[in-house]
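Recall the central idea of this unit: under ordinary conditions, the amino acid sequence of a chain determines the structure it adopts. In this exercise we apply that idea directly, starting from the sequence alone.
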Amino acid sequence: MTINWVNGFKINVSIDDESIVVISANQEGLLSLASQLTTLANEVNGAHIHYDEHNSLEEGSLEMIIEKI
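Accordingly, the structure predicted from this sequence is:
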């Protein structure tokens, strides 16, 4: 699966005071996520994308895995 990124993307994943997951992103980050979700939707069940601060998220972000079921 090819994962594409729009130059200048910024994405942060956190949990707020009420234990709600918050995904914050600039325009480039949102466009990147939209493209990647579309790609993932066309993959087989079990395919997934793993996001963390070492490969795509801002420093201090929580890890996130999105999986097709």
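Residues 4 and 35 are 7 Å apart (CA to CA).
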